[in-house]
Design a protein that fits this description.
With 444 residues, this protein is mostly helical. The chain has 15 helices and 2 strands. A two-stranded antiparallel sheet has the order 1-2.
């Protein structure tokens, strides 16, 4: 897996990601504690709303950026968004009202909605070999998991000597170092691609149209809904659960670390797993694990004695992290397989936006249901959401999933943008973007 770091541009981008993630991890812990300081027992509801605002920014901003990312200077865009995020993080320690948290979260996540899909779409261009790209995906997932594991531990250590407000300064430093590493990386030049003239609306929705006409990506979207249900329970309610048990700030960090540890174990094993199992099988297993864990939490917690709750929570979060990693890590392979270089930024942006609709649903359910109905009820509702994603994935994702679909262009006039310079006659494409052809046999 580590051999992929021999590629210098990828190495720079990977370490930029790692350092930014450490800063983000510090901010995650600090934001939960800030919400608890401002709202007390209603912290879960505040966090749920703040994270819903984050999803609105992702859903609204990412497709617009993805539509024009192929025409923007990529390196300048990435650096500018890192600088915006660093500036917002510096302001967060000074807020003293819930509405200020909401406003700054929207600004921060709007910058992330521009940065993340552009960053993700760059990696397949740097690593065109599928095995190298698979290793890069696992390494990236491992980076996220190490952040989930180590950042809370680092936060717990820092909280013994400083106020949690200073953790936001670490976030800002992380984004600044990330910007520096992007500046020093040599990104590949994009090839000029012929484009049909499209109005702003069609260009903005191009990635979404490609995405929704590709059955394997509809399946990916369904599985991501299950992933959102599991992660929402952890992200929104960990601080409330641990504090409700009389736990400390360090215990909050430890619970989040258990979640990251489970995900990390799967990330280490996944390259070998994907040599034996398809992405479909692997990801649907992950969705099933999340359904089972959420349901077990809902059924077991009302009857558990207080002294058993803490080890039970750690075990649940560990398995939840494993299920989440199974669901999300192989997704980049599906996106790469379903796009060409010219459309890749738009498709990654579409995945970024559409997948976060699931989090937009799950975060408020986790927060509001937890505050109004209790944690077992919140977990039960999230289990139902995860089950919906699992069933939809089984239904919409074909078990037989060829990489490309053969179809005929003989009915199209010369110069039609769908031909992409290949002429008429039978062709194989990973997707179809116009309304004149079906993308999949038997599907309109």
């Amino acid at each position: 897996m580590l051999k992929v770091l021999a590629n210098r541009p990828y190495r720079h981008l990977f370490f930029a990601q790692v350092i930014a993630l450490v800063g983000t991890g510090l901010a995650t812990v600090a934001l939960g504690l800030l919400a608890y300081e401002i709202a007390g027992a209603d912290a879960g509801a505040v966090l749920g709303t703040a994270l819903a605002i984050k999803m609105v920014a992702y859903i609204g901003i990412a497709p617009v950026v993805g539509a024009y990312a192929d025409r923007l200077p990529r390196k300048s865009l990435l650096v500018a968004m890192d600088l915006v995020r660093a500036g917002v993080a510096l302001v967060l320690p000074f807020v003293d009202a819930v509405w200020q948290v909401y406003l700054l979260i929207f600004l921060l996540q709007s910058a992330s909605a521009a940065f993340t899909p552009t960053f993700q779409a760059t990696i397949p261009e740097i690593l065109p070999d599928e095995e190298e790209y698979t290793n890069a995906l696992s390494l990236s997932r491992l980076a996220y998991d190490l952040e989930s594991l180590l950042s809370p531990m680092l936060a717990a250590l820092l909280l013994t000597v400083i106020s949690f407000h200073w953790l936001f300064a670490g976030t800002s430093v992380g984004f600044l170092v990330s910007a520096l590493l992007v500046v020093t990386s040599a990104l590949p030049h994009r090839k000029a691609a012929a484009r049909a003239v499209e109005n702003a609306w069609r260009k903005t929705t191009r990635g979404v149209r490609i995405y929704l006409k590709t059955p394997r990506l509809v399946g990916l979207l369904a599985v991501t809904l299950a992933a959102a249900a599991g992660s929402a329970m952890v992200v929104v309610n960990t601080v409330v659960l641990v504090k409700g048990m009389g736990g400390s700030q360090q215990d909050v960090a430890l619970a989040l670390a258990a979640y990251g540890g489970g995900s990390m174990l799967i990330a280490l094993a996944l390259p070998r797993v994907l040599r034996r199992l398809s992405e479909r099988t692997t990801m649907l297993i992950g969705a099933g694990v999340l359904c089972a864990v959420l349901l077990a939490f809902a059924m077991a917690t009302p009857t558990l004695p207080p002294d058993a709750m803490w080890p039970f929570l750690l075990a649940e979060w560990l398995v939840m992290g494993a299920g989440y990693s199974l669901c999300v890590t192989p997704g980049g392979r599906l996106l790469r397989r379903s796009s060409n270089e010219a459309d890749r930024p738009a498709l990654f942006a579409a995945q970024f936006a559409l997948s976060h609709v699931g989090w937009l649903l799950a975060y408020p359910v986790a927060g509001q249901a937890g505050a109004l109905l209790g944690m077992p009820a919140a977990s039960g509702l999230l289990a139902a959401i995860a089950a919906t994603g699992l069933v939809a994935g089984l239904w919409k994702w074909p078990a037989v999933d060829p990489e490309a679909v053969e179809h005929d262009h003989s009915d199209l006039p010369p110069g039609h943008p769908h031909l992409r310079g290949q002429g008429a006659g039978p062709h194989r494409h990973p997707y179809v973007i116009d309304d004149l052809h079906v993308e999949w046999p038997g599907r309109n």
